[in-house]
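Minutes, methods subgroup
Present: GH (chair), OT, SY

1. OT presented the first of two proteins processed in the latest run. Sequence and structure tokens recorded below as shown on screen.
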Amino acid sequence: MVAAASMHPVAKGSPRSPTREGTQGQNRPMDHLLDQISETVSSARTLEELTRPLLEMLESVTGLESTYLTTIDLQQSIQSILYARNVGGMQIPEGLSVPWGDTLCRRALDEGRPFADDVAARWGDSQAARALGIQTYLSTPVHLADGSLYGTLCAASAARHELPQRAQRMLSLFAALIAQQVEREQLVHKLIEANSLLRAFATTDPLTQLANRRALQQELGRRLALAAQRGTPVMVAFVDLDGFKAINDRHGHDAGDQFLVALAGRLRVVLHADEMAARMGGDEFVILAWGPADPAAQPGAEQALRDRVFEATVGDYRLEGDLRLPYAGASVGVLGAAPGMLDAVQVLRAADAAMYAVKRRRQASSAPRAPEPLNRL
């Protein structure tokens, strides 16, 4: 971007041409500016880190005391000052929002006039311009790659100024750099969102929206490692829905799915802040909780967790189609895993065994029956 040397011939042996010296002298400020731009672009990690130095350079290039970047919300018809630099008496504050239709930027875009040194006479109907005292104005739109209008990059002054040479080109260059940074940040944001969705998809049961088996095993492993540091046990409640197969057989799989979703909702309600509920698969659920530091309190804590989870499963379930199912409760086994004794797979296997012991006792006391519909509401 350095201007070409003078094309006038120079005789052999003659001293260096004054015209060439003059051109080189004029290029020195531009070389310095290009160095500043290069350093800013290479070091900026955020839009703000890029924009603020560019606004300072824009003030230097244009001689206008206020330089600023705006964003435009076309749906709300609002223009807002995102970043601003003010070195004179005129102050354009960051965060200022004005109706898009009243702005100089809108008029400049509509008329194809990026520069005006007679704002009061040309666009005197702009209340925002009158309130800020703008007399000289320069702007360019910041367009993203898809053609959408992100905002504008502007310079303004309360005094009358001529448009300096190269100012418009520098303004356009700065706007392009800002657009690229905006797109980079938008892409990073989209990638983060996509990664979060993938992580949620990989660790969430799609039907109940509880954690799935994979997430459960990861969290249980984490808690077991932390339990070894704390010296406190991890309690695992293993839940099996007695009679669930009969619900599916009698009322259909849609009703069975609704029953699972409703039960998951009940489990969420009774969870404490530091607990986790997960669906192992089918009709099996698991709740993780912390045990007490005092070993003597462990049996009582296990019984309290068992009662809390069991009682959450008992009751009438109102399903679609005005179906109301009374449910006598699930089989719930609770295991207190002592720190450093078992891994996640072993703990789940032991909790499953504790649940089946409860199931056998329930079966021995009364033959299990599938829930009958009470009535149609």
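2. SY then presented the second protein from the same run.
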Amino acid sequence: MNPRERYLRCVRGERVDCVPLFLEGLSYSSREELAQEPDALKRDVAERLFDYMHYWHLARGAGNRYLMTPGHRIRTVHTEERGGNIITTREIDTPKGPLSSVVGQNKQSRTTWHIKHPVQSLEDIAKIRSVPWERPEHLAPPDPREVPAGFAGRGIWRGGVSSPMVCVAGMMPREYFLELCLLEPALIGDLTEICLERILDVLGVVLSNRVVEYVWMGGSEWLTPPMGSPAMYEAFVQKQEERIIRRVHEAGAVCHVHCHGNVRAILERVVERGADFFEPVEPPPDGDITFAEAKAQVGGRMTLGGNIEARVLEKGSADEVEQAVRAAYEGPADRWVLRNSAGPICAFDERMHRNYHRLIDVWEALSGAGAQADAALASATA
């Protein structure tokens, strides 16, 4: 079974030959692309992983976390480097006057944060809401011929969207968003519906020729406990994401829901809205549920991704990594993928290099993956 088959079959709830492995940030479409990786330690780990893991072939979509405002209305007015960070100032053109944002991004980790959100008040909401929706001119279904050699065994066509609620929350400071959820729930509901309709319009084009087979949807940790109440989650996340998942399924694709943090209270709701895959599942102190508990709660109704935390891989010992991998294997054996909670955040050092190799060592031992890879290679060359 090749990496593509193994991963997609697992996400669909079908039988696989071993637990799929996917480590974010270490997947390359070809050995030529991999050879261009400048970090020698990272490249060494990725070379070992190459035949084990699929890669994403991304379909071009459209969207942002500024109320899905059409991209041609947003322009960059200034960019500068400051202390190893890239600081970008943008302006949003609205019929009621301009809005501005300032965003920082770390050059190494690519972590991004707002220095200034474009929305700070109800007046700003009225401004950004006044921008009419226009389907981007570039938007088109992907061309199935535009894939590199080797796609059939390792590639998966993937689209991506944010949860509609995130496209509202992302345009303002988090505390202001939570304040409005309490004081102006009808407004937040209206704004979330605007984003939902815009996302569905984009998906209607991207999914129209049924080439995209996997859609990633991210971000609802804004309203997981303790940030939001169950009533808020129901009003601003559940029904909106359910409609997106239904649209993805209508196109013959599967839907991946990404959400960090405390997810014990929402896992059942994710199952109910029809998601095929959910990650990450983080134990304390990062989250509030162990992977074994999550597998037992879900009961094979949805595939789970879990879960070696980035902090363990980057700052822990090799023995801690092995313990985390073995813990992931506890509980039910089907419908799960071994993966990191986030791609490499820090530059690879000797500790990370050692830890990632230990992860692979344990996965090979517990899954029998090394022997299966050898057998598949022998069969292919016979």
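Chair's summary of item 2: The radius of gyration is 21 Å.
Next meeting: continue with the remaining queue.
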